[in-house]
Amino acid sequence: EEVLHQVSFSATPGTMTALVGPSGAGKSTVIGLLAAFYSPTRGQVRVDGHDLRQVRLDEYRRQLGVVLQESFLFDGTLRDNVMFSRPQASAEEFQRACRMARVDEFAGRFAQGYDTVVGERGVRLSGGQRQRLSIARAVLADPALLILDEATSSLDSESEALIQEGLQHLLRG
Questions:
Q1: What are phi and psi of 139, to 5 degrees?
Q2: Element spanning 148, H or E
Q3: Phi, psi for residue 68 in degrees, rounded to 5
Q4: Helix (H, G, I), strand (E, B) or coil at 122
Q5: Which residue in 144, 108, 111 sits closest to 132, CA to CA?
Q6: Is the dihedral of CA 25, 49, 164, 96 positive or negative?
Q7: How far is the CA of 71 from the CAs of 5, 111, 124, 128, in angstroms?
């Protein structure tokens, strides 16, 4: 069954593009197509002029950062969950990503700080803390394309505004 009809848009590098619409309108489907989770039955998805069906998915996905509303965390430390995206990152890069995603605000409240174990699927964290951790992971990866699918829905408005501000700073680079 077709779920999208005649969808076309362009997003200029260095800008933020928002897909807005009611529940069921196809926003997450568009994100799935951009992330190459699946291919369109008709038409094409082009990124930087390249049809995603013609690119090597492993290379494309290395340039992609995706944060979904329900993110995956594994039973490791806060640090492990962020560094997973780029294990060779420096301590300074790690700290910068955590500041931008506001992970530093809650990590400092734990006795073990960034070495706190989050539990399987992040069960020891609130929904907002899990989302911040996932955003930090995506930011640390330094992707060419960052996709957020309702990634700040569990955050209070002040935290969301601060993260948006950090993402604007990230776009400058």
A1: -65, -40
A2: strand 145-148
A3: -95, 165
A4: helix
A5: 108
A6: positive
A7: 28, 24, 14, 11
- Whether residue 131 contacts residue 67, with contact meaning beta carbons closer than 8 Å, is answered with yes
Q: Residue 48 class from Cβ within 10 Å (0-12 exposed, 13-18 middle, 19+ buried)?
A: exposed
Task: Return d(Cα 122, Cα 34) in angstroms, integer.
Answer: 26
Q: Which residues contact 57 (CB under 8 A, 6 or more apart)?
A: 36
3-state secondary structure of 62: helix
22-69 pLDDT tens trace: 888 888 888 889 988 888 888 899 888 899 999 999 899 888 888 877
Report the relative pairing of strands 46-47 and 50-51 from DSSP bridges: antiparallel
Q: How many percent of the chain have pLDDT more than 70? A: 90
Residues near 135 by beta carbon (within 8 Å), at least 6 away in sequence: 67, 100, 101, 148, 151, 152, 163
- DSSP class of 113: G
Among all chains, which residue has been given the structure tokens 């951009």?
34
Residue 140 structure tokens: 């640390």
DSSP code for 37: S
CA distances from 164 to 6, 38, 156 (A): 30, 28, 12
Q: Which amino acid is at 111?
A: A
Q: How far out from the chain centre does Cα 109 lie?
A: 24
Residue that wins the pLDDT comparison between 90 and 162: 90
